[in-house]
Every structure is written in C-alpha cells, then in structure tokens.
Amino acid sequence: MFQLGKTIVSEDIIEKDFVCNLSACKGACCVDGEAGAPLEKEETKILEDIYPKVKPFLREEGIAVIEKEGTWVTSEWGELETPLINGADCAYVIFDEKNTALCAIEEAYNQGEIDWKKPISCHLYPVRVKDYSEFAAVNYHKWEICDDACSLGKELQVPIYKFVKQALIRKFGQNWYTELEKVAEKHLE
C-alpha cells in the first residue's frame, strides 16, 4: 500500500494486469453477485433525474423492479446500490444480440441521451474505493469471473491503473492520476 494525497492505494493497482474481455465473460459482473452496483450519495439523485431518458433502453424486468423499488435502494447494511432483478441482474442491465450484459445507462450515454456515463463503481471496476472519514482506500477487487480479463490484460501488458484511467481521473482528478503514474513508473523500475 502507498499513500497518494488522501488515498491509500494497493500496489495491485499498478502490479496486476486487467482488460475486460466481454466476449469471454459476457458481462457477468453485472448479473452475478449478491448486491447491486455500489452508489455514491450524489449518484442517487442523478439516477432519479435521468431515469426517464434511460427507461426506453431498459428491459421490461428492469423497468418493473425500478418502478417498484426505485432507481436505487439501500441494502440491509445501509449501502446505496442499484436495485436487482430477482436478486441477480442489475436492474439497468440489457443484453446485446450475443447475450452479453451491457448497461442501459451507458447505452443512453453513448447515444447522447444523457451526459452521465454510469455509476463510478461500475466505471472503476475492478477497482473498488472505500471512503473513510480521513482517506479513501483504493483496492483491486479480484473475482474469478474476471480471470479472462486478467489473462487478456497480461497478454496485452495493460496494468489495472491504465485500464481504468478515465474512471480514476473521473473519481480523483487528473493531478491524482499523474501522481499515480509517477509512483507506478518508480515502482516498476
């Protein structure tokens, strides 16, 4: 671990390789697991505001869950997250013709309907950020469903921090990312 501003960063972010391999995993991270995508408090308002523009991109099951439970939910542990369809798929998941899970929010963004890409936790994945009162912990979340992404990242020689560059800049800013690059260069010498 090393400190970067008000963050404590795991070396895994710079040492491990990762590139999403959707053709292999089919977007399993959006349909597996026991919880929805983690949300920041300000993202709950964004989801409420953009829902009318995202709704046309959603599956019927997603619309039904969102209209019953809301555009976001609070877990039994008090965490803010996206609602789930039958305890599995994120309510915002859609599927392409190859049955690959995609994000309806991101699809609306890609088509110019909204100007918000998706929740930062999704954009950052496989990086997870845990906020504490004095700092944020920035860690790699290893999940076996992403083994193909690790293999592809290794093959292409793309470290995690480079794979999620835009998301890290979105979360922490360009200056933070520039400092991370400097640390990575020194660390990997």
Account of the protein in words:
The protein has 189 residues and is α+β, with helices and mostly antiparallel strands. It has two domains: 1-18 and 129-188, no CATH class; 25-125, no CATH class. The chain has ten helices and ten strands. The protein has helices at residues 12-15, 22-25, 41-54, 60-69, 104-110, 120-124, 147-156, 160-163, 165-172, 174-187, and strands at residues 2-4, 7-9, 73-74, 80-81, 84-85, 89-90, 93-95, 101-103, 127-131, 136-140. The strands form four sheets. A four-stranded mixed β-sheet has the order 1-2-10-9, covered by helices on one side. A two-stranded antiparallel ribbon has the order 3-4. It has a two-stranded antiparallel ribbon with strand order 5-6. α9 crosses α10. The two termini are 17 Å apart. The model has no long low-confidence stretch (mean pLDDT 92).
